[in-house]
Amino acid sequence: MRAAARARAKWQLLISAAAVACFLCAQLAMLRRHSASAAATQLANTASQCDGTAFVNAVAKCTSFACLRAAHSVPHEGKFNFPHFFIIGYPKCATTSLHAYLEKHPQALGSTPK
């Protein structure tokens, strides 16, 4: 009985991962269709380093929603600005650990508060 429950949980996790992958592919295709505005290009050039805080500081200078939208549609020198996402999981399934690892990555920005 427990083996069946574990197998079911693994399949549900695989299905969830496949759904996330499809969503990210769709977002990438959408971003490739949109052209970058001058403000977004300037933001991308300002924050072309791997340091996520430089990009946050550059985006903080935006004064309109159009500027923010354009800033998030520009890939940075071969990098992709993935959309925001939630880490969802069952209790005791290492979501806090995953959040901590992602937050320490130099190319990922963590949320405040968690």
UniProtKB/TrEMBL annotation:
Superkingdom, taxonomy of origin: Eukaryota
Entries under InterPro entries matching the protein: P-loop_NTPase
Protein name: Sulfotransferase
